[in-house]
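Changelog entry: the Probable peptidoglycan glycosyltransferase FtsW record was regenerated in this release. Current contents:
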Amino acid sequence: MNTATITGRIKASAALVDPNRYGRSDRSAMGRWFWEIDRVLLLLLAVLIGFGLIAVAAASPAAAHRYSGGSVRFDELHYFYRQIAWIAISMPVMIAISMQPRDPLRRLSVIGALVCTVALALVPVLGEEVNGARRWLNLGVGQFQPSEFLKPFFVVSMAWLLSLRETDKSLPIFSLSAILLGIVAILLMRQPDFGSTIIFGCVWIAMLAIAGLNLRILVGLGIAGMIGVILAYFFYDVATARIDGFLFGEGDNFQVENALRTLTAGGLFGMGPGGGTRKFGLPEAQTDYIFSVIGEEFGLIACMAVALLYLAIIARVLIKLLDEENSFAILAAAGLVIQFGLQALINMAVNVQIAPSKGMTLPFISYGGSSMLALSIAMGLLLAFTRRNPYLTRSPYVVKWGGESIKA
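Regenerated structure tokens:
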């Protein structure tokens, strides 16, 4: 082998292990994304998705047994393999969205919110009924749940709307946002989907608080929300059945009672992967009650770790927003992570029997194509709105204390 050949191979090898690749001097699209993205948040999401895949693998035999009628031909890991496929589709979507600038994502979200709202209006007419509710549209190649995709688009659109108040305080922004929320709430309750209605309402109030709405008005909205739940109890059959079952033990409480027994059956450390037996009695082990499967097979300590992981994601985003100067980015990112955390909280509360059954999945843990893809869009938007240019220095907060200005 001659000297020129050896030199060429050395240069080729050096290019593969170039220490400057994705370094701070890299100005390529991927290089800028790598340094601007919140890598801690990305890592937390990756850990959550990985744990979710393990949980679906644990719940898959129970779901397969239930929906196959005990047929031996039905693969016990059927839902696990399908979840891998959905993750393979969803993760590139999340990364692709996280690489986009904020302005195109704002426009995309407004268009997405309009499309999903129209689809939501078509669900009671064209949707397929599953477990007594019409929430899905059949697209031939699969089912599409408009409410799941509407969640992130609604939050970003609402953030854009509320941020307009900075440019013109005379605009009736709060009234307009209330009207839009009312339209979505009516469409959701027709399905019926009372749980998602509550999430949309709570996130809206939280975003109003962040946008600086008067405290008295916020308190009034909170009271109005409680009155709304009371009225729903008396005039909305779904809410009546769920609340009666939760408070008075009336009706069919098999699901939530069995979920709690399953969750605590494993004790602190669980029965081990594949060792759970009570999960075979759960009606939706792979979706609504997967948190109980985690408790049985991996123990209450694992359940606590999952809860802390959600808390870490929420805390990371809120801390990241402390020095953000763009009001739209603050509202959008805060709204997305509050919605994410609230959905997780409600699912876990149902599993431990401190909230009535809602039919709501555990984010990135539960099985589901629509849920996984919609959450990936939401987290892609969140990653995009929390991106920071490492070459820009942000202005520190200046606080007046004792007549003297100091840096916070």
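The chain has a mean pLDDT of 83.
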